[in-house]
Structures are given as C-alpha cells and as structure tokens.
Amino acid sequence: MAGLRSRGAWLLAAALCAAAARLDAQIGLSTDIITGTVTDESGAPLAGAVVEVFSLETQVTRTVRTDARGRYTVVFPDGGGQYRVRIRYLGKQPQETLLQRFADEDRLVWDVRLTSAPVILEEFTVRAPPRPVRAPDLPTPGSTERLFTTEMLTRLPVDLEDLSLLASLVPGTVVVPESDSTPAGFSVAGLRLDANSITLDGLTFSSGSVPQEAVRATRVVTSTYDVARGQFSGGLIASTTRSGTNVVQGSSGYSLRDEDLAITDDPDSPFSRGFTQHVFSGGLGGPLVKDRLFVFGSAQARLRTDAQQHLLSATASDLLRLGLHPDSLNRFLEAVETAGVPPTIVSPEGNRDSDNFSGLVRLDYLVNHSHTLTLRGDLRKTSQEPARLAPLALPQTGGLANSSAQGVMAALTSRLGASLISEFRAYVSSESQDSRPLLDLPAGRVQVASELPEGGVGVSTVSFGGNAALPYRSDKDALEAVQEISWLPGTGRHRIKLGALLRAERSSELISNNVNGTFFYNSLADLEQGRAAVFRRTLLPADRAAKRLDYAVYLGDVWRASRSLQLTYGLRFEGATYPDPPPFNPEISALFGRRTDRIPPEIHLSPRIGFTWTIPGSGVRGGLPGQPGWIVRGGVGEFRSPLPSGLLSAVHAATGLAASEAQVVCVGGEVPQPRWEEYLRDPSSVPSGCVSGGGTAPLRQPAPNVTLFAGDFAAPRAWRASLGFQRFLTSLLRLSVDFNYARGVSQYGFRDLNLRATPYFNLPAEAGRPVYVAPSDIAPVTGAVRFAGSRVHPEFGHVLEAASDLGSESKQLSVSLGGVTRRGVVLQLSYTWSQSRDQFSASRFGASGFGALPVAGDPAVREWAFSDFDRRHSVVGTLSYGFSPALELTAIGRFVSGAPFTPMVGSDINGDGARNDRAFIFDPASGTAEGAAMARLLESAPSRIRECLSSQIGMIAGRNSCRGPWQSSFDLQLNYRPGVLGLGRRLQISVVTVNLLRGIDELLHGAEGARGWGLALRPDPMLLYVTGFDPVERRFVYAVNERFGATGSGANVFRAPFQIGIQARFTIGPDRTRAALDGLRGFGPRGGMRPGALAGGPTPAAARGEFLSRFYALLPNPPRAVLELRDSLGLTGEQVSALQALADTLSRRIESLGDSLFAALERRGGRDQNPGELLALVRPQFEAGREQVRWSLERIREILTLEQWNRLPDRIRNPTNRAGRPRPEG
Questions:
Q1: Residue 213, CA distances (Å) to 90, 245, 466, 709, 1017 in order
Q2: How confident is the model over 388-397, as pLDDT tens digits?
Q3: Is the dihedral of CA 946, 947, 949, 953 positive or negative?
Q4: Domain 20-128: assigned CATH number
Q5: What DSSP character marks residue 455?
C-alpha cells in the first residue's frame, strides 16, 4: 500500500506540473542543461556532493559531483525536459526535486542548501527562467515560433510527409503548393522561397521528407534573435529525430487514400478524380546496452497513383474548362499526325505513379556522464512516371524523374567541468536528381483560339513532341559542421555562447533547357501548313560545376536579468568563398568592362537583440488568480541567406566562351522548316541554326549567353523586428497580438548589359511602350520579334549581370486565441493582416530569372509593387475535442485572401528576348477588335477582374495589380482509441476527410452550381496573345483571352474531389502524458476508476487525506518557512504573530482549493475521462494555489524589514520556481 501511495504521489506531481505548463511546451527538444549550486546551512559551498539526474522520458540516470565552488552541471542531449534530481552529501540530509523545462527555457537551475538536521524528503517543482538551450532547436527571448510533435500531428487532418507543409498552420506564412517540377515551399515576411532553411537535428537538411515516426518534434520559426541560428533570412523549420531510451518504444502506422472513397461529379474526368495512396511507416527503438547504448530506427514508404492529366484523357467538359473546344483538339490531333508525330506514340493509358521511400537510423552512446555520442544515417528515394506532364499537352511530352539522397551525422555533446558545455555536430550528405524525356524530339507549342459555347474566345497553348525542360541532372555533395561552446559563469545568470559553422558544398548541374529546341506556331492553320513563327534552341548546355565554402562565427549571451526579464543579444559574423570560379572571358571584359571569373567573396556582421518580459498581475478574467498579467516579447536583428546555389550554377554555365551555353533564336523567314518525321528517326538532325533571313543585325550562330556577378554583389539579407503581447483571458485561454516588420535588402535581380539603351521606336497604341528592335525585326504575319535586333553586340545573346540592388518590405499584424476551454476543447485560432511589397519575387536565375520579372517596357526599371506572396488576410484554426478517452474529433480550417497576379502578353513584344511583357488594357470603346473583345471580357468577368481591368484602361497593367479569389479549406479527423483486448488505447484508428468543403459545396449547391469551395483556384494571367504586327501603324495585333482571370465552376479544370481517408497508428511503449493523467484519477487500463486508487486506501476519509497531502506537497507555505528561521532573522513578537496568522490563512485557502478539486474528481467517479477535460479541471485549481502563494509573499515583504527580506533563502523568495514543502495545520 505504501508503494501504491508513493506511486500515486509521483503521478500527481507529474500531472500537476504538466497542467501548469503551456500546451505548446509539453515536450523537450535538443540538449538540456541542469545546473546549480550546493551549499550548507551557512551558505558555504559543498564540494564533492553527489548529484543524480534521472530523465523521465529516456529513463537514463547521470551522476556528477560538485566542484570546489559547489557548482554542478549535467547535460542531457534529447533528455525530454523533465527530470528527477537527487543531491546527497555525507553527513547532510539529501534532497530530491522534480525539474521541468518549459518550451522557452535555456537551462534548468536548482540551487540547494543541505542541512544537517533530519528532515523528511520532499519533492520540489523547479521552473527555470524562460530561455532555450540549443539555438537551432529551441526558442529564445523574443522569438515567435510554434511547436508540433508527431503525436499532435497524427491527431490532426494534416499531411505529415513534407515538413514544409507544417508552415500552413502558422500565422503569417504563405505556402506555395508543389507542382509537377518543384516541391512545396513557403514564404515568411514576404521573402523569397529560397530565403528559408530546413534543419534536422540542428544541421541543414535539403529535403523535407523524413519518416514521420522518426520525427520527435518540429518547430516552425518565423522570428528569432538567437545569433546561433543562421543561414536564412525568412523562416526556419527545425526538426529533431527520436532517440532510443532505456524503454523499448516506437510506433507504426498505415494510411489509405482510395479513389473509390472519393465523391466526384465527373468520375470520367482525370481532373476531378480522387487518388489512391498507401503510406506504410514504422519506428522502434530501445537500449542495446542499458544506460549506455541506444538505437532508434524508422522507415516509411509512400505509393501513390493519380490519373494522368493530359489532352487525350480530358473529357469534353475538361477541354472547355481549359479554354479549348473539342473540335479544336480534333483538328490539332489531325495536324500533329500529319506532321509525322503520332499523338499516341506514347500510350495515353495508365496512371501516374509517384513513389517515395525514406529511412533513418540513430544511435546514441553515453560514453560517460560527461560525454554523449550520437550517430545518424538517413536515406531517401523518389520516382515519378510520367513526370512534368501538363494538362494542355500530349502524353508524349512527359518524362521520367528519379532522385535519391543520403547522409550521415555525428554529434558529440560534452560537459567540461561545471561551467563549460561543448556541442559538436557534423553532417555529410549527397543527393542526386535525374530526369529524362520520353521522346528525344523538339517541343512543339501551338497557340489555339477557340470559340466557346458560352460565348467569347478562349486562347490556350497546346504542346506536342518532346519536353523542353528535359533532360535534367544534378548532383550535390556537402559537409556541414557546427561547434558551440557555452560558458555559465558565476551563478549562471548568463549563458555565453561562442560558436562556429562551416559548410562546404560541391555541385554539378546539367540543365538541358530546350536542348532539342522548340517550334512555336501562332495558330492551328500554321501547324497544318508547317509554318512555325519562332524556333528557339539551346546549344552546348554546360555542366554547371561549382564549389562553395560558407562559414560563420557567432558570440551571444542569454541573460536572465531578473525573474521577469530575459534577454538574448549578440553578433553573427558570416561569409563565403568560392574556390572554383568560372573561367575568364577577355572579350566580355573588353566589350562590357565586366569579369566573368569573379564571384565576390563576402563577409558580413549581423547584430541581434531580443527580449521576453513577464509583467506581474492578474491576467485571468473575473479576478481568478492565475497566470501573469502580460507577457511582452520582441526584438530586432539582421539575417543573411546564403548565395542561392542556382545563381552560382547559372554563372558557371554561361561565360560566353566557345564551350559555354548558347542560344539560337529564329523568327519569320529565318525559321527552319520543321521536319518532325526526320527528327523522330534521327534526333541529331534537329537544326542548330537559322536559315537566311532579313533583319538589321544578323545573329551569329550560336550566340552565347553570359551571366556574371556585379562587383558589389552581396548575399540576400533582411532586417527583422517584432513586438508581441500575450494576455491570459482565463486560466486556460490566452490572447496574443504580434507585430512584425521586415525590410529585405541586397535582394538579387538581373539586368541585361547587351540590351540597347534606347528603344528603336515606341508603340503609340500602347501608351508609348518602348520596343528595342526595329520594325523590320518583327514578322508582320506572326508578330514574332527577332531578338538579335536589340543587341548592342550581336555576337552575344543575353549578357546578364546579377546585382543585389533590389528590396522588399513586409508589415504584419497577427491576433491569436489559443488554449483549452473548460470543457476540454483545445483550440488555436489566428487572424493575420499583412502587406508585402517588393521589386522582384521569383527565385529563378540567369535568363529564366531575367524573364521572370513582368515589365512595362524597359526591363532596367525597378518598380515597387505587391509581392507574389502578398496575402492581405488569412484565418487559420485548429480544434480538438475529446468526447471520451476513446473518441476525439479534430479539425483544421484555412481561409486566405487571393494572391496577386499580373495581366500578361503571351510572347515577347519589347524585343528583350523574354516573354515577360505586361499587357496593355485596351479601351472597350476604341472601336478596334481588341476593344470589342475587351468589352465582352469585362461584361462576363468576375467583379474583382472587372475592377482590376477597368481601373487601368488605357494603361499598361501594373505588376500584381489583379487578385485571385479567396482560397479556403476545411477538414475533419475522427480518432478512435479502443481500450478493449488489452490495447490500452495504444491503437488509434482515424477517419479523415480530404477536401471536405468540396463535398459541402456540392451538397448545398449541386454539381452545376458549386461555388468552388475547397478548390485550388488558379486564374489564367494571359490577357493578350500576339497574332501579327502592322509595320505602318507600328502596332501589334492581339487576340484577347476572354477567359482571363476566370475561376468559376466552368473555368476551373482542377477539381479535387471530396474524399475519405482511413489510417491507423499503434504506439509501442509507455505514454507518459496519458499515464500521468490517468494515474491522477486512478484510471485503469480501460479508463475505469480503480477502487481506492485515488487515495491508496479503501475509505473516503483516507482518500481525501492522502489526496490533499499530495496537493499540498506541490504548493509551498512561505510564511511557515520564514517562521522556521525566526531566530536567525531576529523576528519580533509582532512579526511572528503576523506571520503565523498569514500562514494559517494561506493553509486554509490552499486546503479549500484542494477540497474543491477532490470533490470534482469524486463527482466524475469511474466515468471515462478525456485528458483535455482533466487538464481543464486540474490546471485552474493548481494555478489558483500558486497565486495564493505569491499573494502571501507580498504580505511577507510588508511584514519584514528590507534587511530581513534580503537574508531569506532564494527558495522562499521565489516559490514559483522553487517549491518548498508545506505542512498545513488545522
């Protein structure tokens, strides 16, 4: 019975400590530091005292001895954040405590005074002041971030396969979905996608794909001021892997998405059909040698099948949604067949298969109590067939894609005495990608104008032949190492960190963009007649080999200035060198005064400072004692991103030398006659130049491109500032308001040094738009522009200078409500207003980057406009409610305002060689064909599109001047954890919805009247297509795309259906959180109340007494502790009487709270109890008791003199952090 009582006391302590913690901080990450000082009764240090620290999560004990100053330090890599500490010394009474790290703590501090007098062993609850332990993994003062544990995410309807997708649950982030050729990404503070970083165990991890059972927790960091965190200027996703412990534990799961479980309005359409996916995952770990060597291994396989989405699989309604009439498709197929490329040369049957495998193994070896060695190996493989297949293309244009990656990490964490901690980590990795086309043919692109049944003309571009983006190959090897030394001087109020980072990378990239060439046809008639308007081809695609060396040194301090104020500040010194520059081109130096062999080395010093300030006072509505009134956090600092690897590769590939990449551009009469049958038989017969033709400046064949760096080029940086306020509305709900500002500097862009400084002429019908080629360089029949005419030196194509003279600016306000209601509903709801402006948004390089910036005429003009990542309003919410321990419902909802986009022209019109010209908005009343088509468009367009175009009539459209519709998503997950058959609720069976809003939309409005809820709505940005040129009037002739910006039910072809998913997850090993909560209530394995379990005895009176004694053990009685020191403090009789009365009052108040809690638990009896409801019941009473303790301290200060107060031990003056052992009387 005594053992049962002891166990019950421990479980109660653990449960109440967990209840007092913030919900987003219930798991430990990375390295924990436990430190303090041991003294005797007189305050003299005790050298040689034995300190034993036991991790509740890993079940590992570490033992150290205090030094001559009485100091001790214990280091636990991935220890879990909760520890039982026991300190003993010969001749002194030992003491024991429970230490718990909350999410924002830098270290756990317990200063102990051992006495010779016999006392009863007690339990203490020690809370360290908020601050993180290891920079890459934990929050620091002023930071804004959100923690996601794997256990938490498996309960929510969210995809766990890609870590970057977790950013969608964080206020203020903008998620960019994956495409057929690019992975999913996210933007923070309006910065580019390449401004972010993903780390695994504190080191750069190039892929977000990790076995879900291997991930312990993930933090999405949107703002931090720790100088140890670097290599990014946007956001950071920091994950840690699971380690083995002394307890065998793990989990396995299976997830099913079946096409037969999808509800669709058009089962024949590949664009509205569901997908089938099987995900198998598992992980298991435990001790190889108890207390010494641990292992954890995990693996995951994802097998996904989607319907192929291409022209031959599209239904008639799909084609109309794509802006293509079925008759136009039939005519196109006949023309392709006649040209000599059978449309079915690649079978249109079958599905697209996407497979993904990942595995990870981790070993942890405790060399001794001072050193821990960690080894980790990871492996990833992916494949997709067919890949890069567009909906307006034939299946022959697809390809095959494969990738693989692997790496090995080693980490050594060491304690060097009582004041120094060393952490070393190194990661060696390699990765490769290989994609190749299904056919080695030039690509064919045909502009098709179709009269649609509902009226108007839709203009689209269909593709056949090869794929211009393939083949593609890349290989990258990298070594990254980080060394950090932490020094805790004196009493440990400061943690001074000195660290260094070194990353060496070697890459090789073969981007065969358009290596087989592309023929562009202005119409189906041109295709039928074999008359192409433009032929482009890239010759001699270079293997872009590059090397780089990035380094950083940082010095920072984490300062506990007081109980309520914590600061972090420091400097981060970063730089990079490039040991293998491109070769020197003397001709470029002579003609343009630039060097191709110079990659500017860079060094930069970045300052940062952040703070967290806890303001005392009642923050709980209605006067209920509880949390502090306010928590204020903020900071300011500069952040630097590494030079993008793609930009470095582009410079290596385009030096302008004979062996470098060159571009062939033929227009009008220069275009070779396409001979598709011959190309199919012999790919080497594809033309490598133009036929004879006119023009003002014949282009030498080939004309090499050049990309080089400006002499003052610098890596992208951003100045970031934030200020946040948090207030508790109730003891469980908190309201947060956060302001964020970011100013991006040294953002990269491109200018063409080989473009004429002055235009040849201007377009009077288009507000004087400049054109940099002569009218004779424009084909009248097709309107195709001969690129050579705009060259200053025609022997070269683009001569692009990468400069870092652009900027961005972002302002953001977020309001969040989170916590637990009194009925056990766990919620997180946030609204974010933001405004992001920049001069260039795309993460593209070389000629592709030059062409990614929409221009009004002169590409050298840098205009400020709304960023591609500007989302003015967003609402994100998650909710979880447990009906019982067995049944739980969770939900995720998102509501985001529309993305900006630019009205564009489908081809080059200013002559700079890039298809990046913004459209002119013709006056509907002008009497021209363009004006009439514009009138029809304005009449049928959605109001937001009509307002955008109407406000710019007679002008060239502004960049990102139009906006798409609001995007929404909402999904549910029902989790069932049976307690039968001895499962102990370790099996979770879930039913999850995929795109629930689509199902609700069709249920309410029908398939024909659906509003598009839950769909990814993608407006068509192409407003104008060039069909000719009038050299006399000097004006282009256009076809207006009358489906511009349309996203209605008749215009959106991508219609993901409502689908049901089924998944299961089985947990192996103990669940400490649930065990602690169940132990508090005395639940058995099936959730029932064991007779007498709550009290450890059979009688109600004994139950009440035992429970109250456990409750009191966690709440100190400071007045009684002061009375025990009456002699040493020299208390007067009046002071003793006042303190005794205060002690009795406090005892009665705490007893009342304990009685109330006990009665509430008794009323619930043996019913199944949800942990969230139990937490909601326990936490307010415990917090109320702590507030009463704080109230008694204020009275004590009034009773004592200043000298007496200063002589009190810290454990009495700071009872929130160090709980004494009360013994209520009466």
A1: 45, 15, 41, 44, 33
A2: 899 999 999 9
A3: positive
A4: 2.60.40.1120
A5: S
